[in-house]
Amino acid sequence: MKQRQGLIALAFLAPALVCLAVLRIVPAISAVVESFYTESLLRGGRVFAGLGNYTDLLSNKDFRQPVGVTLLFTVLVNPIQVAVSFLLAVLFTQRAAGARLWRTLVILPIATPPAVSAVIWSVIYRPDGLANGVLERLGLPAQPFLTSPGQVLPSLIVLLSWIGVGYWMLFLIAGIQEVPEEVREAALLDGAGPWRRMISVVLPLVRRPLAFVLVADTVSNLLVFAPVQILTKGGPNGNSNLLMYDVYSRAYAIGDIHVAQAEVVILVALTLAIVAAQFRLLRGDQ
């Protein structure tokens, strides 16, 4: 009986497992294998290069710059998105008039594909766009935004936060709603104000969903591609050249597919290292 139930369960899981193998596992193995080869004009095909692609990348300043930009971007964007998502989740779980309406408005960008969101914000960031119109109303000078080396990364952070904050907020709202009401009432009777209840009561009890949001948001931001490809092409001066866009440039603009595969492997390793460090720190806090 148990064997039959196992076979039935496997039959239901088979399509998902096949898709996982074809779309994830096989391409991952292929990327690792191809990263050890290079194209040889003399031999008329690919030849085994060992770790040559990796050593060339790590010694190349044109690769070190996108690594630095990606790490800086990750350090800046993740705390901002997680903090804003948590504050909005706390705010929208309060019993206040209009909370559901505002929650819906914050969630709406989730339904918009990243490429479409990038096009919308390209209009907002134009010299005669909405952002500079607001600044003009406030009596402030117009800003270059995406064409400024110092402003391009913050501009992308605002765009990606507009896209992602509502999504991560949903997980935190679900966690906050699981906090027992009697715990909140006990804190209220003890004289704790709204901020004290949020920091001392709510925050510790939503640590698990908060940890999930932090890790998932980190992975998501390390793989950002569409907004960079549509808005900045990695510029100006490489100040928005994130690793995913650099992989695309090497593979399709330069045509060096094997070095691009090596860069993919490095990006995955970097992502795993950051996520592992986050898990270790979060476990240490517990």
Automatic annotation (TrEMBL):
Superkingdom of the source species: Bacteria
Membrane topology recorded in Swiss-Prot or TrEMBL: Multi-pass membrane protein
Endpoints of the signal sequence: none
PROSITE patterns: ABC_TM1
Gene3D superfamilies assigned to the protein according to its UniProt record, in alphabetical order: MetI-like
Transmembrane segments: 67-92, 104-124, 152-174, 210-231, 251-277
Residue ranges occupied by any ABC transmembrane type-1 domain in the UniProt entry: 67-276
Ranges in a coiled coil: none
Pfam families linked: BPD_transp_1 (PF00528)
Stored InterPro entries: MetI-like, MetI-like_sf, UgpAE/MalFG_permease
Location within or outside the cell: Cell membrane
Alphabetically ordered keywords of this record: Cell membrane, Membrane, Transmembrane, Transmembrane helix, Transport
UniProt similarity note: Belongs to the binding-protein-dependent transport system permease family.
Protein name: Sugar ABC transporter permease
The organism of origin for this protein: Kribbella speibonae
